[in-house]
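Workshop exercise sheet. Pairs work together: one partner reads the sequence aloud, the other fills in the structure field after running the prediction. Swap roles for the next sheet.
Pair: D.N. / O.F.
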Amino acid sequence: MPEEIDQIQSLLQKLTEKLIAISPQLIAATIILIIGIFFGSSISKLILRLCSKRNIDITISRFFASSVKVLIVFLFLFIAIKKIGIDITPFIALLGAGALGLSLAIQGPVSNYGAGIAIILTRPFKVDDTLTIHGRTGIVSLISLGYTRLLTEDGEEVTIPNKKILGEILTNSFTNLVVEGVVGIDYSADPETAIECVREALSKVENIDKEIKPQIGIQEFGDSSINIGYRYWVKTHNYYSIQYAANLEVFKALKRADITIPFPQRDVHLIAQKEG
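Structure field:
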């Protein structure tokens, strides 16, 4: 037991002497690494400002800025390691071998990153666009290398892996989203009057896009009613609230015009047969 304690003490003494001997190199390496992090952050912010002035898409700006920052930090990290006196050649070889094994072990995340790069470069959508994919609709709030995040009207965040987006059918309605509605009127009513009522009702609803005119017309001839279809455009974050308000205004307008909204009905004919 005393011999083991002596060995530990001797090892600690040698380690302390080694640290004292290379302490100037450690301090210099730490300073180099701090400078690298500060320099990388400064260059990243500068790239973001330049891209903002040139109106470059925020997704591409963030991608370039973060990539440059990572490269700069890694460059200064290698310089710091070399400053200590450690040969970085074995580390580079080990990093290459590790990258190969790691790529096989984490094919899922790697495929997400590859899909993220493709999305950023091809730009099928950008931040603040309205995206519909896999039955979910929301405003694109973030596009990263691994995933894309949607913000719904209910305040929910939907995170979708990028590999689930690339190659799928997606709908990009940019800043607006179309709202579709239909209302049935009695066959005895005048369709043109009903169409004007719907048009007037939609004009009273706030937050409906005024630049794109609503589309209103006879959608179909139903069994019990003439169905008037109408379509209009709203901002995504107000989709449901505006739809409910518009339907109420349409109902009030038709009621003021004495236009009946019929309910489904059937005519049943009874045929009596004579005895014998």
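Discussion prompt: The two ends are 122 Å apart (CA to CA). What would you look at next?
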